[in-house]
Design goal:
Strand content of chain B: under 5%
Oligomer: heterodimer
Number of strands of chain B: 2
Order of helices and strands of chain A: HEHEHEHEEHEHEHEHEHEHEEH
Distance between the termini of chain A: 49 Å
Structural class of chain A: alpha/beta
Helix content of chain A: 40-55%
Number of helices of chain A: 11
Strand order of the largest sheet of chain B: 1-2
Radius of gyration of chain A: 22 Å
CATH topology of chain B: ABC transporter involved in vitamin B12 uptake, BtuC
Shape of chain B: globular
Structural class of chain B: mainly alpha
Number of strands of chain A: 12
Amino acid sequence: MKKVLALLLVLVLTMGLLAGCASEGEVAAPAPTDTPAADGTYRVAYIARAQADSFAAWMANAVKEEAEKYDNITVDIFDGQASDDVENTLIENAITNKYDAIIIQPNNGEAQRPYAEKAVAAGIITITTNARISGIEGASSVDADPYLQAKVNAVAAIDQIPQDANVVVLLGPPGNFHADERRLSWEKEFFEMRPDVTIVGEEIANWNKDEAMNYMETWVQANPKIDAIIAMNDNMAAGALEVIKDNPAYADTLAYGVDGTAEAVLLIEEGRLTSTTLQSAYALAEALLDTADKLLTGEETQIDIDIDCPLVNIDNVQEYIEMHKRAGAIQ
Amino acid sequence: MKNFIDKLKKLNSKGNYSIYLVLIALFIVSWMANENFATWGNLSNISRQIAVGTILAFGQTILIISGMLDLSSGSVLALAGVLSVSVYTMTQSLALSFIVGIAVAVFCNILNGLMVTKFKTPPFIATLAMMAMARGAALMYTKGQNIYQIGDYVVFGQGSWFGIPNPIWFLVITLAITWYLLKHTVFGRSIYAIGGNEEASNASGINVNKVKMKAYIINGIFVGLAGIIFMSRVNGGLPNGAIGFEFKSLTAAVIGGTSFTGGVGTASGTLAGAFIVGFLDNIMVLIGVDSYLQQIVRGAIIALAVIYDISIKTKRKRTKLIKAK
């Protein structure tokens, strides 16, 4: 019995320790109460795609920080765990709990559509974001256009990628709206304009750095010359660049990403990543809270907006390094 | 040629070499399919790519032989890895970060071991619970964000010693440790005994709980090491890294002839299993197989390899029985 008690004590202490480590930026949702706050603040449920997805987690953190600027809004954050089933359940729970507004970052837009419609039907202000679920009557949306994000890179690449180039392409998860739209954009805006360019490798690396590394290592074996790495996000571009970083034969290889993560802007500063598009979680969070505020206070009834997607390259990278420094993502 | 085949058959009927034959066949087919396959550069790549998964697989092998398993290894790897990276960025001490990485994984595995031995939780459930807790802790600690700018920490996964990449050294060392433990120690013999028949082992005086606990601790050391190599290789602390690695490692062990019923398995078999998967993934990318098709082929080949391995073994058993009669 003593041993059991000792063990339980150890467990509790460990949990305490871990919780202590992270208490500052904790994103786990506090247990929502059934009754609306008496002081007239609005309760907003933010249903994130997955806390294990680094962009989604960045966005959830940004939303939480942004919400602190609003005295009249409290935000509870829920983790959809990259599962349609979990996400739909969370939306239903939020409806049952009578939140004043629900922000949905879908795992898969079509799977969440009927649940978002349910929320609208229940008279709850519904906002879809990153990516928007379009065409729901009565719902609002805040997003960045994935086609445009890839396009700004693709347009720049037309002049940068040399004649008869060999390129490799790293894809996000199939069926993901942003992954598919970005690839489509590269097809229309770059590959169709440049029939001289050959794709020597194209693989699904699921937004992951380590998977991208494995593919790039193999491509390097099979191709003495790779002129450009075209990645649908920064993580994968960074993984591919990790493989060739000390290899002089690939010193001139160009590389493109999307997101504008802290790692990506540092790689641009070092001259290794050619360009990326900023999909700013801060800008999305700012727009989301602003939209929620306007809808909750009745200032407007429906809002659909896209945030800007500026190109980040060596010429303007310092501005974005400063942005990440202010947010504490770069020391 | 006929002689050679007869010799191989003889060799195969003597011991369990079937999985090595699959490996050799795959190597030859891949070599013929693409001239870049059998280059030193590519083979060194494959070895580096499979190192992390294989080190986990050695831990799994020890556990599966004794009738247990570890579903938490991918998550614990991530937790140990990010904490290790984080300690390095704070202290700039490679030694300290290395120790922290190992210690965290060992600690998680002591909890696994306690759940299994003291509270009699089935290993499947105990480690499933740890899988969720460790991943949650890794995400919580990092707020779901990757840790960058990890400086010289990359030496574990990207450096090399005597011209051989460090992950391969770690792979060889863990292989040697696993082989030695299984073949030449009392602990190894106890592991096989417990997996074969736990009741009988207990009756014959083996301290079953102690051996099981030891197995989890050794697994923890391997998982911690794998975490350090993984994070160092990707030049970052990725809290969402190595998702699904527990299944990768289980696959390698099972293809390598480790039996889920316990009591059967070897270190070299697991290594062969890992190389089969590694060769397969590599050659499909080299020859540009469609990425959806790759998943189907991977699954089919795994099934075929195991079916072949099992059928050879049952045939051998039958021949033995007939001879005995």
